[in-house]
Design a protein that fits this description.
Blueprint: H1 10-25, E1 51-52, H2 55-61, H3 63-75, H4 82-103, H5 108-133, H6 135-138, E2 139-142, E3 147-150, H7 157-181, H8 183-186, H9 188-208, H10 211-227, H11 236-256, H12 262-265, H13 275-283, H14 301-310, H15 321-354, H16 356-372, H17 384-393, E4 400-401
Antiparallel strand pairs: 1-4, 2-3
Helix pairs in contact: 1-9, 3-15, 5-7, 5-9, 7-9, 7-10, 7-16, 10-16, 15-16, 16-17
Length: 405
């Protein structure tokens, strides 16, 4: 039954729904479904009340991630600027600590939901506010052509794009959760709240004109929608086919045959806005093919000065996550990162079988991170896409029940 706006109090009723929806949306998911005990076989977010996973157990269960970060720490030794590299590694270690804090919580599922909902409900509306009403804070200008671009809470348009990507997908995931369980059970409030954030996200992606983030949002959103079809999430063959199809389509459209129209449909040219020539240039500057320049050390010193003397836009990343890993860590780093991805994909599949609800978001974050890194470098400290990837692939092992003192 629709709302009759002529009836006194109708607007107040809708406002009450919205306020209640925001409260439910950021509360950690309790209105959506009862939580049930976690078991390690699925790598799920959930744990039973009163149980907690220790940091040591978490690290032991996530050996490939730990191995990758340990190699990153060793690579500091051959960096041209070891002090800078070490500081950057310490900063990157904060990503692991953040994921550890969330997934060792007594209720990891609610912790993940609270993190994504509260961050999204703050950053997305605030970006709209800054762009619309405080342009001196929410907009910038390209200095050599004086063309405006929109940044919101970020510092440049691509940063705004990946903020919208990560938190927009989280709101879409929660909206599908409400629709699947039923509005009568969850209430209309959470649907209104997350629907509003989604509308803002789409508007911001359009304003930011970040093709990579927009394309990945459409891919991730479509993947979440398909995974909500009855039975699909529990069929490994269907999941494999979908993931391989998406990745192959992106690789084919971006690199193998850029004339098929995929790049042009996103408003870009076949050179990916000059990226292909840029990649050739930085590959010629490779320090050590086997071990790289050292952790986040390629874009320092004479190499950075040389690149900046060629490109007026002063790049400080390779605009390809896999190339970025190669330049900094060499083929050894690429192999270890590949190990993390293969191991992480297995964990995502386990989660889809045992806990489809969490598995849907984890699969979307995994595929989005894999595709995003084709044209942007997101394997970096404190990058939201990188943190989302770690949340997707990490295993929260079986918790140990705390003894009452």
């Amino acid at each position: 039954m629709g709302v009759d706006w002529r009836v006194p109090g109708s607007f107040a009723m809708v406002r009450s729904y919205a306020r209640d929806g925001v409260t439910r949306a950021v509360s950690g998911g309790e209105p959506f479904r009862p939580l049930h005990p976690y078991r390690a076989s699925g790598g799920r977010f959930d744990s039973a009340p009163g149980e907690r996973t220790t940091g040591r157990t978490f690290l032991r269960a996530n050996g490939p991630i730990l191995l990758f970060f340990l190699y990153c720490s060793v690579s500091v030794l051959w960096s041209d600027y070891p002090e800078v590299a070490f500081k950057r590694w310490i900063r990157a270690l904060g990503d692991i600590v953040m994921v550890l804090v969330i997934l060792t919580d007594t209720d990891p599922s609610a912790a993940v939901k609270r993190l994504l909902a509260r961050s999204g409900f703050l950053l997305i509306p605030l970006s709209v506010l800054l762009i619309e009403y405080y342009p001196e804070l929410g907009r910038g200008y390209i200095p050599w052509v004086w063309t405006p671009y929109f940044t919101g809470v970020a510092t440049e348009k691509n940063s705004l794009g990946f903020v919208c990507l990560v938190f927009g997908l989280a709101s879409l995931w929660r909206a599908f959760e409400v629709l699947r369980i039923g509005v009568r059970i969850c209430g209309v409030g959470p649907l209104i709240a997350h629907g509003t954030v989604l509308a803002m996200t789409l508007w911001l992606l359009w304003k930011a004109d970040s093709a990579t983030s927009l394309g990945c949002f459409l891919l991730g959103g479509g993947l979440i929608a398909v995974m909500n079809l009855p039975g699909v999430a529990r069929k490994p063959a269907a999941v494999h086919l979908l993931v391989v199809g998406i990745v192959f389509l992106c690789l084919f459209g971006l690199f193998l045959d850029s004339d098929v129209g995929l790049v042009q449909a996103m408003g870009r040219d076949t050179t990916l806005t000059g990226r292909t020539a840029f990649w050739d240039k930085v590959l010629d500057m490779t320090v050590d093919p086997l071990f790289g320049a050292g952790f986040e050390s390629f874009w320092l010193g004479e190499r950075l000065e040389k690149v900046w003397s060629i490109y007026i836009w002063h790049p400080n990343q390779a605009h390809n996550g896999y190339l970025e890993v190669f330049l900094n860590l060499g083929w050894t780093g690429v192999a270890l990162f590949g190990l993390v991805m293969v191991w992480g994909y297995r964990n995502v599949l386990d989660a889809l079988r045992s806990d489809p609800e969490a598995g849907r978001l984890r699969l979307a974050y995994f595929v989005v991170a894999a595709v995003y890194n084709l044209t942007e470098a997101a394997v970096k400290a404190a990058h939201p896409v990188w943190i989302a990837f770690l949340l997707a692939v990490a295993v929260s092992p079986e918790p140990s029940r705390r003894e009452d003192v």
